[in-house]
Design brief:
Its main location: mitochondrion. GO terms for molecular function: branched-chain 2-oxo acid dehydrogenase activity; metal ion binding. This protein is α/β, with parallel strands linked by helices. It has 3 domains: about 1-65, no CATH class; about 95-405, Thiamin diphosphate (ThDP)-binding fold, Pyr/PP domains (Rossmann fold), CATH 3.40.50.970; about 410-460, no CATH class. Helices cover about 40% and strands about 10% of the residues. The strands form 3 sheets. Strands 4-3-5-6-10-9 form a 6-stranded parallel beta sheet, sandwiched between helices.
């Protein structure tokens, strides 16, 4: 089945289009799900004319929709199988060899960084970390298909999105240590990255809040695209897990995105678990993709272990998102979370280790792409060993350098919270400064950039 056929389209129109009037003149329009009618039902009508359910035919047979009896689930799109064999030789993978090698390198780098940072947390050198094992192909593959100007909202397992868009190892490490070179000024916990330059909003711990933010940003981008036709149009992209789709934010965001027809791609990483809650306890329906159709959105389910399928689906979704002025698209990326939810989690308390080992052995995005590369003569064991040794050294070098940096200046606890420092903040600053002066041996202020002297100077300047 082709990608276009796999995308389920439920077309809607803008509210102003429903009346048939455009710029003061009547125009013919086709009947759609969102098209209003002002004419009541006639005695001989065969279809519903109520504004809340257009195009539904009348019937005297009572038949409930019973999803539990449905025999066929929404299909999952893929380009190559688990052995790295392309299924449609004529279509191919739609990815140049050099780009495929870059994608593989980034996935390997991400997996090495995850392993080393997980170990660093266990050694007490980091306070917290979250790995992307099993989901590298979703983040890196999809990010490779976006324009650098597209605005992205991540959850907390999209380190690969940052890496693919150019976030450096130094930037990763500076944020993890919250040191003086951290772009976030040390104000956030580890793995909550953000980059203004890369058009990626800062990650928030609060679950699902980025989904309505993305819908709102997409609405703004839609107006911007219309008002600035000389600039290449942009879209918003939102990543979240299937657990976040249980939050009310998800439903509100998809509904407003659909009714406002905004250019936004919603990417759900369905990895099987919301921390310790399996999908069997999260929902009864056919995954998250079934919800996209319910909100009138173009929807596709994709094999997240197939990076070529991820790339092609994302490229097509971006084209659709900009079609006819903009509309939302939902992609459900299927994967398996190989790692623990975070360093605060022991996943073997709620799932069998043999289950995890089976997924590692049977299928994951890195080994599948490697098989494809080897099949084309682009990769071998020597290259694998060389790149892993080199990337390991690069990660460790950045780690050790960031670990030695001082913490950000203490005044960052106060500045930037409000546009101007409040009187309450100034009182707290004076109290802290007084405590540091009276008990200098109790507090190690030298670990902060500028130490206590810089903080006292800041207080004096803002009295």
């Amino acid at each position: 089945m082709s990608l276009r056929c796999g995308i389920r389209r439920i077309r809607g129109q803008q509210p102003w289009a429903s009346s048939g009037w455009v710029n003061g003149s009547r125009r013919p329009s086709s009947v759609g799900f969102q098209q209003f009618r002002s004419v009541a039902s006639t005695p001989t009508a065969e279809k519903v004319l109520f504004p809340g359910a257009l195009n539904s035919r009348f019937t005297n047979t009572m038949e409930f929709i019973r999803p539990a009896l449905r025999t066929e689930a929404i299909p999952t799109y893929r380009v190559m199988d688990q052995s790295g064999q392309v299924l449609d030789k004529e279509v191919g993978v739609d990815t140049e060899d050099d780009l495929a090698l870059e994608l593989y390198r980034n996935m390997v780098c991400l997996s090495i960084m995850d392993l080393l940072m997980f170990e660093a947390q266990r050694q007490g050198r980091l306070s917290f970390y979250m790995v992307s094992a099993g989901e590298e192909g979703i983040a890196i593959g999809s990010a490779s298909a976006f324009s650098p100007s597209d605005v992205i909202f991540c959850q907390y397992r999209e380190s690969g999105v940052f890496m693919q868009r150019g976030f450096t190892l130094d930037q990763f490490m500076n944020q993890l240590f919250a040191n003086s070179k951290d772009a976030g000024l040390g104000r956030n916990m580890p793995v909550h990255y953000g980059s203004h330059e890369l058009n990626i909003h800062t990650i928030s711990s609060t679950l699902a809040t980025q989904i309505p933010h993305a819908a709102g940003a997409a609405y703004a981008l839609k107006m911007q695209n219309q008002q600035q036709p000389d600039i290449a149009p942009r879209i918003a992209v939102c990543y979240f897990g299937e657990g976040a789709a249980s939050e009310g934010d998800f439903h509100g965001a998809l509904n407003i995105a659909a009714t406002r027809q905004v250019p936004c791609i919603f990417i759900c990483r369905n990895n099987g678990y919301a921390i310790s809650t399996p999908t069997s306890d999260q929902y009864r329906g056919d995954g998250i993709a079934s919800r996209g159709a319910g909100y009138g959105m173009d929807t596709l389910r994709v094999d997240g272990n197939d990076i070529f399928a991820v790339r092609r689906a994302t490229k097509e979704a971006r084209r659709l998102a900009l079609e006819n002025g903009g509309k939302p698209v939902l992609i459900e990326m299927m994967a398996y979370r190989v790692g623990h939810h975070s360093t605060s989690d022991d996943s073997f308390a709620y799932r069998q280790k043999v289950e995890v080992d089976d997924w590692k052995r049977r299928d994951n995005p890195i080994t599948r792409l490697r098989k494809w590369l080897e099949g084309r003569g682009l990769w071998d064991e020597d290259k694998e060993r060389d790149i892993r040794n080199r990337l390991r050294k690069e990660v460790l070098t950045a780690f050790e350098k960031a670990e030695k940096e001082k913490k950000p200046p203490m005044q960052h606890v106060f500045d930037g919270v409000y546009e101007h420092l409040t009187q309450e903040q100034k009182t707290h600053m004076e109290e802290l400064s007084d405590i540091l002066q009276r008990y200098p041996k109790e507090y190690d202020t030298e670990q902060y950039e500028g130490g206590a002297a810089a903080f006292r100077k800041f207080c004096e300047q803002n009295r």
